[in-house]
Amino acid sequence: MDIKRPVVTLITDFGTADGYVGAMKGVLLSICPQVWPVDITHDIPRHDVYRAAFSLSNAAPLFPAGTTHLVVVDPGVGTMRRPLGVRAGGMNYVGPDNGVLSLVLRGRSEQKVVALENEAYHHSPRLGDAASHTFHGRDIFSPAAAHLAAGVALTELGPQLTDWISLSFPTLTLRSPHELVGEVLYLDRFGNAVTNIGVLEWTGHDLQLIPAFARGEEAPIVLSGAAAVACREHLLPLHRTYGEVSPGAPLALVGSSGLLEIAVREDSAGVCLGLRPGDPVVLTGRKRN
Amino acid sequence: MDIKRPVVTLITDFGTADGYVGAMKGVLLSICPQVWPVDITHDIPRHDVYRAAFSLSNAAPLFPAGTTHLVVVDPGVGTMRRPLGVRAGGMNYVGPDNGVLSLVLRGRSEQKVVALENEAYHHSPRLGDAASHTFHGRDIFSPAAAHLAAGVALTELGPQLTDWISLSFPTLTLRSPHELVGEVLYLDRFGNAVTNIGVLEWTGHDLQLIPAFARGEEAPIVLSGAAAVACREHLLPLHRTYGEVSPGAPLALVGSSGLLEIAVREDSAGVCLGLRPGDPVVLTGRKRN
Amino acid sequence: MDIKRPVVTLITDFGTADGYVGAMKGVLLSICPQVWPVDITHDIPRHDVYRAAFSLSNAAPLFPAGTTHLVVVDPGVGTMRRPLGVRAGGMNYVGPDNGVLSLVLRGRSEQKVVALENEAYHHSPRLGDAASHTFHGRDIFSPAAAHLAAGVALTELGPQLTDWISLSFPTLTLRSPHELVGEVLYLDRFGNAVTNIGVLEWTGHDLQLIPAFARGEEAPIVLSGAAAVACREHLLPLHRTYGEVSPGAPLALVGSSGLLEIAVREDSAGVCLGLRPGDPVVLTGRKRN
Q: How many domains does chain A have?
């Protein structure tokens, strides 16, 4: 057990000005004074479950084993959607059952998921004896995270589940032996267009593509001599890094999260190339078997 | 004493880009290396003492005893307004005497307040021998918070006071035995309109209202069968939670801080209903004695 | 050595929503579980090396000895610009060789600088065996900061350097014995216009000016009876603090970082006076020898 100085990371769409995140940190520290709250972000666009799922998947795997990740982007608070607690890959996850945890859990064989229904582990605000109906971040999710961080067994927090909601992602299509079609998932803070084309390895000549987002392709797809990416009317050269083109020039590259990105050096691909989420992206190469 | 790992929370309107908050954290850690700075927010709208007071009152009560809360929203820096240190309810508070601490102190019987005048506990920036005239966050408030966190007695920091500034809030009016009139205090990040109508308990049938913001009503007001809230031309049903109406539909509900709120499910009441701070809100029910 | 509970501060232009900063914190904690990440800011305007350098210089000197400061504002990631590790004034600094560290190092006689080239201290993301080409914050700078915080010697991280890039600043000009000409460097969050006129001490009558940003003036310049600052068509009185003028009135004053600032009490000098970076500022007094 790694509970001596347990880290709890936080991802919300609350902003910070209203003190809601502060309230969550207070609950964490009141339940488990050793907890160490580490902000990932509170600036997820409101109710953007996909963006939160990506933030989590960019950051969570880098944390040490034993970390608890607390995610509250929860448009369905107060409805029947279930609050989840998860143990997977040596880490804990807590968040609503709306798919926000599904990206980071994808492909993990050993995972245990519970519904956080045991009221003994909820927080009771001053107004009554039960958790609030509007702020599960404070009353259900933070207490669960604090208890997990303190070493309480996941199965104490509620009954085990075998099904939960997964985000659906746009699938990749192999249009021809040398044309793979994906799309722009989102634009990051720098205006880079992150696509759903996941790259396992790029040797500079061969691209080995993860079939994670592809349907019906179980083995990695290898595109040999992959060299160009088309998006809207733009044809973009594939490079290793921004520095290989001039400032202001567009390029495609494998981003830090392993997804193919379209970027403009020292500028915004979103603005300069007029890209938006959902735009089709065509990667051209030659399929190798 | 709970000073082994003392938490100091921070609320400012500084933003973070200029490094001013970083400077405050540096002073905290230089004076007391055990201090654990926990951000509540640095995104209070500039000089908005009311919003800061609400953030503090949403978050502070959830923290464990012994926490020190540091609030620097200080339009009067460099004027005669006094810097305050407070001990109340087992916690410490530090901030300017402009009302920002008054909401969280309201109704506390045991509180001790001092003016932070003892220069031995100020920080002297490199430019001279006294605290700066423009950055008391760094030079007076952070040092006071660090010293309190380190276990220095409050009364060491300056002379005790018996008066300080309280924020004035719009008062509630019982216009008829079944009509309570309050108003919108502010719009939160989600566009929910938070009102000054404080609710002690809502059974689904009876609303028991805290007279905290009311004048001349010392006992709780009970409205039986309270069912509707009017604001501008809108008449809104009272519900327990967002999920009881369809996405896009407006409602009134008791928010997580115990105040009546007007919301639109998965959207902004501020935008959809055109609400603004100061708008009158009428809660209709039947007064019970 | 002060490595028991080593603080690592973070300054980036990443924002937080994409999880990139979260990934850096994960790497820090995975390499050195004792590391204590303290956010200074992630809201530096994109690629604004100057603003990051000022944030760092406002905040870093206040931290205790032994702190490691991690700065990733890095428009040249993936180009030949070198990643730097620095030991100076009892603190560690890590960041790209683009001048972002140069302001805080200015005038320090004892400093040791290395290029972070030892790959044994890089982070290898899942995609391959080497650091990424696009996210040195995660793969080179955070690991270096974590290793320094853990007590690894600076010289372990790469070969020592004797030259690095310094930011160039607009220089001060003594236009006449009583007229010093500088300029607006940037507008802070409050709309205060921070100038390049550094003040060593202001007695209320004499201004002693640091020649830090001046060319050819090695000794401090003393302006006696300095009383007025001109910028654009405005003539501003010099005061100790905002409170000495009425709300809404403009003034000049020595800001908390020791630089002359132009402000409007409780409002924005940027907006009210139409000031912008680069605007000339003339300080009028009488030079004393």
A: 2
Region for A55 from its dihedrals, namely left if φ exceeds 0, alpha if ψ lies in -120 to 50, beta otherwise: alpha
DSSP H helices, chain B, are 20-31, 49-59, 102-105, 136, 142-149, 269-273
A38 contact C CB<8A:
yes
**pLDDT tens-digit series, residues A154-185:** 999 999 999 999 888 777 787 877 788 889 98
Provide the residue type at B226 as one letter.
A
Altogether, the residues listed in chain C come to a count of 289
ipTM value > 0.90: no
- Return the percent helix, strand and coil in chain C, to nearest 5: 20, 35, 45
Closest residue in A to C136 (Cα) is A256
Instruction: Give φ, ψ of B249 to 5 degrees.
Output: -90, 145
Residue A168 lies inside a defined structural domain of this protein: no
CB C121 within 8 A of CB C138: no
Tokens of A282: 């065509």
Task: Give the three-class secondary structure for B207.
Answer: strand
Among C60, C200, C266, beta carbon nearest to B75: C266
Instruction: Please give the residue that has the higher pLDDT: either B67 or B5.
Output: B67
The predicted model scores a pTM of 0.89
Any idea which residue has 């940190």 for tokens?
A: A25
Q: Encoding tokens for residue C188? A: 């802070």
Rounded Cα distance between B175 and B50, Å, is 26
Q: Of B93, B122, B157, which residue is a domain's last? A: B157
| Pairing relationship of beta strands B91-96 and B68-72 according to DSSP bridges | parallel
Q: Give chain B's end-to-end CA distance (angstroms, integer).
A: 45
3-class secondary structure, A159: coil
**C32 and C153 part of one domain:** yes
Q: Is residue A65 assigned to a domain?
A: yes
State whether residue A120 sits within 8 Å of chain B by CB.
Answer: no
Of A139, A253, A263, the C-alpha closest to A192 is A263
Question: Which CATH number belongs to the domain containing residue B223 in this structure?
Answer: 2.40.30.90
Domain holding C78, by residue range, is: 7-157
pLDDT tens-digit readout, A186-211: 898 889 999 988 876 666 677 777 65
Tell whether B21 lies on the interface with C, counting CB pairs under 8 A.
Answer: yes
Q: Give the residue from B157, B181, B199 where a domain finishes.
A: B157
Cα(C203)–Cα(C205) distance, rounded to whole angstroms? 5
Cα-based distances in Å from A149 to A68, A83, A93, A152: 6, 17, 10, 7
More confident residue, B2 or A128: A128
Terminal CA-CA length for chain C:
45
